[in-house]
Amino acid sequence: MAATGNWKLLTSLVFASSLAGCAAGAPMISGLPPVPVTASGETQPVGTNRADAADDPAIWIDPANPNRALIVATDKKAGLHVYDLTGKDVAFTQAGLVNNVDVAGDIIVASDRNDGVNAHLAVFRLDAEGPAIVPLGRAAAGTGEAYGLCLKKSAPGQPITAALIVKDGSVRVGTLAIDGTPGFTVQWEHKIATQSEGCVFDGDTLYVGEEDGGIWELKPNGNAAIARLVAPVDNRRLVADVEGLATIDHKGRRYLIASSQGDNAYAVFRLPGVEYVGRFAVAAGAFGATSETDGIEAVAGNFGPAYPDGIFLAQDGDNGALAQNFKLVRWDRIAAALGL
To answer: Which of 21, 126, 251, 285 holds its CA 20 to 30 A away from the CA of 185?
Structure first.
């Protein structure tokens, strides 16, 4: 009996080991083949080395000189960096655990995770001439861990509308006051079932990335929202996790871009119908490829010979022996590769 029992145990262990080996060697899920493009630049690495630290970028455009821009980006272990378009790190401010970031005029807002129980929005002013980042304070934003964040585009002098995505999928959209101590007043809320982070506004419509589920379209309806899953994770167009979201205007059309983190690609959809148009990947060239991308940003405009028709910006989760950074890609090359 003992010998038989030992044989059964040995057989079970061999079988379990075989299954584990198959799982370990299983190929990564790959979606539809992306068209390759290469980066035209990259930022200096964030300050936190040997960690998942770089997370989300935003782009500030000089209202007095639309050809001039600066990149504001998070080191989610330490604070905020400012880079010029050559990738040089020109300013940094310590802010602790800040995750996502966006800009409205000269105001910088970041999701503040320093209190994992109560969410906050960290607010700063960008001194573009310094350049420098000036802290203005924190706005309380309800319970939960602050995770995703995006700002609605608005005219100068208009109230700032912010969307905060709590890690559990709670979405809070409201007005951010910056006079005196910053304050956040919620206008409407919605609950997505599981962990969500990336978001972007298109007018009043908010798109949110549920990491394992896909892209949700949220249209405000009183103090709630009408929700529709417009681009599910299907292992073709989107491979989980769905991470950063961005929009860009091109030839009179607006496009929604999503980080398909699970297969190191980016899916592109035409708005307002969220019609799938293609996928691209940032391959190795003069600069390295991107992989495991969290946050992204895209802006149209002429930023000089290096970026004559807009910029796509992506966090790079694997920057070789260096700390993580952000890669810059000419938008016209992406548009040409996709036939837009």
So the answer is: 126
